[in-house]
Write a structure and sequence with these properties.
There is one protein chain. The protein has two helices and 26 strands. An eleven-stranded antiparallel sheet has the order 19-18-24-25-26-16-17-23-22-21-20. Strands 1, 4, 5, 6, 7, 8, 9, 10 and 11 form a nine-stranded antiparallel sheet that branches. Strands 3-2-15-14 form a four-stranded antiparallel sheet, with no helix packed on it. It starts with a helix and ends with a strand. It has helices at 2-17, 215-218, and strands spanning 26-28, 33-37, 42-43, 45-46, 55-60, 65-69, 76-80, 83-88, 92-97, 103-114, 117-126, 129-132, 135-138, 147-154, 167-174, 189-197, 202-209, 223-229, 232-239, 244-246, 249-253, 259-263, 271-277, 288-298, 301-312, 315-318. The chain is mostly beta strands. It folds into two domains: 23-182, Porin (Beta Barrel), CATH 2.40.160; 189-318.
């Protein structure tokens, strides 16, 4: 019996340590590297990467971060609208990394030289969704084989012409070897999604299950709700003031009348989510079962989830 107990102890210890080991550094090179101005429909042609453009990625499970490093700053050449220039990352920048594969790097200082003018602009890069005004950019979280896309939006007037309108940067790379993201912080998933979405009104409800929803970490920081159906965008709502405490609830209100309400559960109980929207862009040809995906970003938290909705007569419905 004593030997059996010792074996069980060793097995349980091994299982516990399996996800408590150092994460080996990786490398990645951003390619494609996209730089565009949506309002003018123009896109930059960015030079192909060289060996100097490779980045080392170093992880810290304790701080839930991935640091992107270069041996030295390596500007990438580009051309747009008849003008030529360069764009460069800082020598290193940090990104929060979650078990979902989502990354968020706040205020990465991009240095852009264009038409004899040089500007350094802070831009937040994310695998979720970024919004400035009517311009929306989306990334995609890191997959099991290390493929990841970061996106950011630069406000108008921050860069030299012809990038002086609101511009978008999207960066894709494959980190090799891919990290074991299971060791990083769990984030909640949007579950039990239900409601009605149409061109004149939208009401959704759901839960944020798993991970931790901390009122302290998501209060007073900008929030974004992004909805899409089968790859087509339904709505992207910006809540620049973020959530505020109202009684037992956290409430965020958008300038278009949109409203998010979160009631954080006690202990391990899930948080309950309610959404009111003035209307969404339901695809005119939507019929049958359509997969509706919701992405909620609030400070360090990115919660995702999806559910099939029934499409009929320009309306999407799910649940009772």
């Amino acid at each position: 019996m004593r030997s059996l107990g010792l074996i069980c102890l060793l097995l349980s210890t091994s299982a516990a340590l399996a996800h408590d080991v150092p994460v080996n550094p990786g490398t990645c090179t951003f390619d494609p590297f996209e730089l565009s101005v949506p309002a003018g429909g123009s896109s930059a042609t960015v030079s192909s990467p060289t060996a100097a453009d490779a980045m080392r990625v170093v992880y810290s499970v304790a701080s839930a971060t991935a640091q992107f490093q270069q041996r030295s700053v390596s500007p990438r050449a580009f051309s747009i609208g008849g003008a030529t220039g360069t764009i460069a990352f800082p020598q290193a920048f940090n990104a929060q990394l979650a078990a979902s594969g989502d990354l968020h790097a706040e205020d990465v200082a991009l240095r852009v030289a264009l038409g004899g003018v040089t500007a350094t602009v802070p831009v937040s890069l994310t695998t979720a969704v970024a919004v400035v005004g009517d311009v929306v950019a989306t990334g995609s979280p890191m997959t099991g084989d290390g493929l990841v896309t970061l996106a950011g939006v630069i406000a108008a007037g921050r860069l030299p012409a012809p990038l002086d309108a609101t511009s978008v940067v999207r960066l894709t790379c494959r980190v090799a070897p891919a990290p074991d993201v299971d060791q990083f912080a769990l984030v909640p998933a949007v579950t039990s999604l239900a409601g009605v979405l149409s061109g004149t009104a939208g009401k959704l409800r759901g839960t944020l299950k798993g991970g931790t929803v901390s009122a302290a970490s998501i209060s007073g920081v900008p929030a974004i709700l992004h909805l899409d159906a089968g790859g087509a965008s339904l709505a992207t709502v910006d809540f620049p003031g973020g959530f505020t405490v109202q009684g037992r609830n956290l409430v965020a209100e958008g300038g278009d009348g949109s409203r998010l309400t979160l009631r954080v559960g006690k202990g391990r109980a899930p948080a309950r989510l309610q959404v009111t929207l003035p209307g969404v862009a339901v695809p005119a040809d939507a019929t049958g079962s359509v997969d509706v995906q919701a992405t909620l970003v609030a400070g360090p938290m990115t919660a995702r989830g999806s559910r099939p909705f029934r499409a009929r007569g320009g309306t999407l419905r799910a649940g009772s």
